[in-house]
Amino acid sequence: MSILVDEKTKLIVQGITGREGQFHAEQCMRYGTK
Prior knowledge:
Order of helices and strands: H
Mean pLDDT: 88
Number of helices: 1
Strand content: under 5%
Helix content: 40-55%
Largest sheet: none
Distance between the termini: 24 Å
Structural class: mainly alpha
Oligomer: single chain
Low-confidence stretches: none
Shape: elongated
């Protein structure tokens, strides 16, 4: 199964809590994830 994404693809992330969650959320945003 292929998943096709591009710069217009939207992403939903659930359950980000705590220090580790904050770290990974910030990394995603720095990478350009919206």
